[in-house]
User: Fold this.
Amino acid sequence: MPNRREVLGTLALSTVAAATPLRFARAAEVTLKLHHFLPPVSNAHRNLIEPWARAVREASEGRIEIEIFPAMQLGGKPPSLFDQVRNGVVDVVWTLPGYTPGRFRRIEVFELPFLPASAEVTSQAVQALYEEALEDEFPGVKVLCLHTHAPGSIHSSTPVAQLADLRGLKVRAPTRVVNRMLEILGAIPVGMPVPALPEALARGVVDAAVIPFEVVWPLKVHELVGNHTIFEGERGLYTATFLFGMNLERYRSLPADLQRVIDAHSGIPLARQFGRAMDRGEQPGLEAAKKRGNRFITISGAALEEWIAATRPVVREWVAGASDFDGEALLSRAEELVATFAG
Assistant:
């Protein structure tokens, strides 16, 4: 039989419990499968995708759960990601429209040479243009945001200090526009998704790559090349555009309040957040290359102007090839938006 002290203790605990609101762990009502192509150690996984998933989970009070599958764990190759989300094989993807060349012609305007500013700036410009004029670009997909990486650099086995050094080099490139730029500059472009790059460099399939420093460290590119060519100025050599999207029917199937949660974690604010994380993600790659003692080559001044002039045919070709839309107007608006968000 309990003594007086035990009874008083039980009563005290009961009083505290009665005065404290109970918080029950709510089981998830919706589980979304999110698929992407980079490893879990990548900047995109750790600093873009995981924080977004946590924010959605918290904002929904646990009613939305996000299961993240990096490195193509659910099967397929990176170019298949858009169709996976459009067809409902997965619920959410993070991918590059440029992995399917020629399919998304209008959004690639931001990949034209010497158009992009920082990822934070350019990402907001991409999302703004999408909301203004390109909402039919990705049928079957609810666009959570579009964004870019920081302006890319050239990472090479032999130094690229001037235009002539590119001639004959086999260079990995991410998209149709960047392939054409390299071709015009005298290189031999080799298109491939970025996860294939380390093996391609190790086996001599390519001599160099254009990528941002943001993926240099997770892919160990700095250990496979000894030279890095970077470009000064307000605009970078190139960038690539990313799509963070959800199957449209899956989105529409959510209760209205959960749709609002997704909406609140989408659009220009999310593009800005992703872009900022991409800019910050450059530092580990830069530091790793410097620590290894790799050579850095900076293109500036008159040499930079020479590179800009040499790439102008890419821009003219892209505008001329826009048979089903006004390429000149789209390019002009893209440049305006980059300048606006750059302040």
User: Anything to note?
Assistant: The radius of gyration is 24 Å. Residues 1-24 have pLDDT under 50 and may be disordered. The CA atoms of residues 105 and 323 lie 10 Å apart.
